[in-house]
Specification:
Blueprint lengths: L2 E8 L8 E6 L7 H11 L3 E6 L8 E6 L4 E2 L3 H15 L7 E9 L2 E9 L6 E5 L5 E3 L5 H7 L15 E5 L1 E7 L3 H6 L4 H8 L6 E7 L7 E8 L4 E4 L3 H6 L1 H7 L6 E8 L7 E10 L2 E19 L1
């Protein structure tokens, strides 16, 4: 008997954009080795395998695999899986539905809210189960610039400098002057290991201000070659950890901060993430990430 799977484009309102995700149902009988092999077969940055939850209040256990390994948490798999489960549960509903559900992930229970409106693309958001941990040690600027094929003069804007933070997995955040520089970025792997391997990040998140929008926002690209992901169209875990960058450089006197992060433009897979931060005593207390997702295919693994 086969396993049903779904392919979902996440952080987009349109099919064939955003970040691709595969979700495999009823995967309790699959070994870790088989799940990794299936992930490589799909070839997406992540694949989710749904299993029976150990916690009775959770809707499902979601195991998340990259082509290189299993990871405890990721953003676009959380959004895509929540929307899939919400749509399946409410398939016969002809009216608007707001649904809360819990996903059991390696990092813990993740609280998700799904908004289903007939005739519209479904939206979901989740609260990060943990706050980002900031790391003060960062790679040297000249090595970072060389590894991204840009100059030292291109690194940084306003008060933003190279930083590092993690939410279950660690990222290096590299601010660049503008979108022209962001578009020029090209990983040079002859420098990559020397620049980043001592700190063992899963990815390098390069960002700048969004110059073309009246709303506050950022444009970004993310590279994770060690996970088998040369470039990622949308990286939710990095967006959650990016809240530490906001907290450090942009927070000011805000009690609530909302911004948008566009990613994937250089890949032809535009993605849009909504990041919300609730602040108490100049510290992030709640981090919420949201976006839309579109189901584009389903089938059976034999």
């Amino acid at each position: 008997m086969g396993h049903k799977f779904h392919i979902i484009d996440v952080f987009t309102k349109e099919a064939y954009a955003g970040n691709q995700l595969a979700v495999v149902e009823a995967a309790d009988d699959l070994s870790d080795e088989t799940m990794l092999a299936i992930t490589k077969e799909f070839g997406f940055s992540e694949t989710v395998f749904l299993q029976k939850a150990e916690n009775p209040i959770a809707s499902a256990k979601a195991r998340i695999f990259t082509p290189a390994c299993e990871i405890p948490f990721a953003g676009h798999p959380t959004i895509g899986t929540a929307i899939l489960l919400g749509e399946i549960k409410n398939a016969e509903t002809n009216s608007a539905v707001d649904q809360l559900l819990l996903l059991e992930e390696g990092l813990g229970l993740v609280r998700c809210a799904v908004g289903i409106v007939p005739g519209e693309v479904t939206y979901a958001e989740f609260d990060s189960p943990v706050m980002p941990v900031r790391h003060e040690i960062v790679p040297e600027m000249d090595l970072v610039a060389d590894s991204l094929s840009i100059g030292c003069v291109d690194v940084g804007f306003e008060n933003h400098k190279i930083s590092s933070a993690e939410v279950s997995v660690r990222f290096i955040f590299v601010p660049v002057r503008n979108e022209a520089v962001l578009n020029r970025v090209k990983p040079d792997f002859s420098y990559w290991e020397e620049a980043f391997e001592p700190l063992q990040p899963v990815g390098v998140f390069v960002y700048c201000r969004d110059e073309g929008s009246a709303k506050p926002g950022f444009n970004a690209r993310m590279f994770a070659p060690d996970l088998g992901v040369p470039e990622d169209p949308a990286t939710g875990a990095a967006a959650v950890a990016f809240a530490s960058v906001i907290e450090r450089y942009d927070l000011g006197s805000h009690k609530f901060y909302e911004t948008r992060i566009e990613q994937g433009l250089a890949m032809g897979r535009p993605s849009l993430m909504k990041l919300e931060i609730e602040i108490e005593e100049k510290k992030a207390r709640t981090i919420r990430l949201g976006g839309h997702a579109v189901r584009v295919a389903e089938g059976t693994l034999y």
